[in-house]
Structures
1.
Amino acid sequence: MLRWKLGDEAFFQGIRDYLYNRAFQYALTPDLKDALEQSSGQDLDDFFRKWYEGQGFPTYNISWASTDNKLIIQVQQTTSHPSVDFFDMPLPFVIKANGLTQHLRLENTVKNQQFVIDTDFKTESVEFDPTLWLLARHSISYNPGLISSTRNIQAAAFTVSPNPAGHYINIHSDTGFFYTYQLMDAGGKLLKSGSSEQPDTVIDIQDLRSGVFLLQLNDESGNSKVIRGIKL
């Protein structure tokens, strides 16, 4: 799961650093954690506290629906042991339609979370974690009622420009509410993340490869919108 959370490059670099730095010495779990934090730039206190020191696992109850250009995914999480109330994890999805396949990485930040994803097609099927990255149970079902009951989330007040983009993208918020964002490539690999409560936030994308990218915006209620963009 750490490999999925951190990505291949950061995970394997952290493992190499850990083995090199602790060669022919005693090593403890904090040594591994420190090496992975250094390679990834992520704080892993919460991950190790819940997955290593805590007990149990998450169960995801997932429902979805789609229109011609949007996909709505509702995720409800419960845990198997009271020592952990909630597992913060990126969730892997694969969506398919008309012979097309798209991978999604959705950051699950609250127990009951709704994602609204911009698409160029009407989604025909949704798979959750088909390659078994996560230690979890799940159920998934189609629920057309989500289309009419989709919340008027604050994330809907965001615009992202330019699109297509060359060197940067600007996130404009009409509301001024605090939000977080995750920038991912088309395969769901996390590239950048951050937070803001400013009307405009500029993200440098010069180091991104040309092609499709995904930008997930999360409002204070934990609801999310995923915008598809193109890097020139």
Note: The mean pLDDT is 89.
2.
Amino acid sequence: MVDELPEHVQFAKEVVENAKKRRPTPKEWWEGKTKEEQGKLVSFWLILASIFMWFMGYNAVSSNLSVYTTKGLNLSAGIASIISGVSMGVSAIAFIPVGYLAAKIGRKKSIIIGYGLAVISFVLICFAIMQGQEAGLKSVLFALFYVIAGFGLIIANVNTFPMVTELSTAETVGAYTGYYYVATMSAQAITPFIAGLVMDYIQQKYLFLYSAICIVIAIVLMAFVKHGDSIILAKGRKLTKEEKRQIRLDSMDSAD
């Protein structure tokens, strides 16, 4: 009787045999998917691209906030900290109500609204705040517009991650979560450099125009997404306790 091979040798043989098997080409892999699977994959890639452009736009501003307020608006660094703190406070309050908004109108529409608020705010900061204005007026206008943009940030962030996980399965949820963070982190690594070039070689205020353009691209990409949206409540139907609990959990997960 022939002795069985040791377990580690059997494993090595299986690895070699699997490596010899012909793998499908990208075209064959794609054609092997159903129409629904193809649609979900396209939506997933569009969502990731939209998230990438969104973070390119918003983080260009957040990473250069103190530079712009001190050098562009000639305000003190303390005022910049206060404005940032107020924006974060509004964000903390808005997380859960924003989750309810998505249940009413859907995640996709909610995200586009959030993007739109940021675009309007950044365009107003770029063109409505002038160098000759009184320091107090500049501070108030900038704080108002930036807080509105921060509210847009929350609307977008609370809904983008659930859209990604909605398109995943039990086997792919970990990979999809990783792709989400690759999109966000890579944008946050790239955009401060580009934003710095805009501020150094064009003009400080055009930082916000650059950000607005990035977010407009994010809106266009999100407009083509067909899958991953939440189920909108029927007219007149109220959320159950379990649905409210799930919305709160999803909102807290997005906050992380």
Note: DSSP finds ten helices and no strands in the chain.
3.
Amino acid sequence: MTAPLTTQSLRRAQAHLDQTRQEAQEAIQKIFARRAALYREGIAASSQRIRLALARQVNGLDEESGGWKVTLQLVEHQIQLLGRLIWAMEVGERPDRPPLAGVDWLEALAVVPTQAAVGWISRIRQYLDLLIGPSLATETAGPREEIALAVRVPDGDGLVLADGRRVRYIGIDAPEMTTWEGPPEPFARQAKAANQQWVVGQRVRLVRDVSEVDRYGRLLRFVYVGETLVNAELLKAGLARALSIQPDTGRALEFQALEWEARRKGKGLWGA
């Protein structure tokens, strides 16, 4: 039997989560600082061997940073849900009745080290799937390769297929066409134009790494036109940055090296 919930036990859980959030934020800041230093070393490196060694270090930092980011996201949701539950208890609302029925605070408490969490551990997986979407839960759906017709591109790192499915290129991040401030980011239009020239009207070969889709339902793919890997061509032209996100890191080291080479040559983004 689980111990009864009290506002005191929940506030202790909140304090623990606040501490975890601070630790995660500090860890991410340190990783970013180290990553920036490695980037500078990679740009200045005189040999491919040194650049690849540095790329491996960056890839390791990206993996570590990704873990901390997931932790931070989870903790933020837990804090919000606990706040709602504390409010409900203080005003006399029961969490198993409307308007709080269905709120996922049970799953939030399942990963908080308090007595109140006992008995709810089996629900952690459900909460994680809900919180971070299908990208970490779905790894093997669909064929590893397929050929499909690309009909348009929304930006420099995605395309739309004839059947309406959207594709997000693995391992790269092009400048955004739409931003909160309004105008596109520098070189966003050039990246979109290059991507359009490569793929629109072409039967492209789509190759999956690990994940099937991201949290927005877009297919995650390496995109080939003939034997040309479009993801890589955009990096070579300096129209995208290397972006390593677990678990789809099969070409992370190669892509990191391509970005550094484009930086060294002052291509695209790196010559502005």
Note: The chain has seven helices and eight strands.
4.
Amino acid sequence: MDVVFQAAFELRPLRCLYPSPSDGAPERIAIHPYALLLYKDALHCLGLDVGRGAVRSFLIEHMRDAACEPKRHFALPASFRVEDFCQGQFGIWRGGDPVQVVVDLDARVAGHVESRQVHPSERREPLPDGGLRLRFTIGDLSEVTSWVLGFGAMARVVSPPELRARVRAELLRAVEQYSPAPAVSAQKANAAGRLPDGVRTLAHDRARRQALPSRPRR
């Protein structure tokens, strides 16, 4: 960690092993660390991934074998602003193309959302039923899904389709957690030598009649 602090403070290139964004396998990368950020009790390094030519957020605790280059420096871009990479309630931008998110919120939670800033780029539109339409542009949907799910049925994703699919998948998994166990069919129960309460088959009725004593005919 001290090496990362030194590299960021002195604007020196940093080399380390870090999980690949594609498959999670460790790969050796070069980073120009622009800033260090604390989010949810974890330190992140916001910097240029030299090999990919893109600014990314790196979780410091995932860095291994880190070393800074003592004889080299890099220049901090004049256009760099930490604020551009802070996603409000959605944490730190981790890379990816910016996408516009549109969410409709029920009137019951509209006031709660209006009382705070959700994202620096947000735009708000009142809906006819007293609800609120929220628009914002974000580069990472990782935490938006959890934010939407936190409102339950009082939030509906209008776009993008990827976010709608994520929310839908999570809701279906949640429903499965509360779905009743599948009923045992009479055929399967009979094969196992037992039947659910109140279930009888024709074979059981026939066997019962055969076991009863016959009545004399008059």
Note: The beta strands are 14-19, 26-39, 42-49, 54-59, 64-68, 99-105, 123-126, 132-138, 155-159.
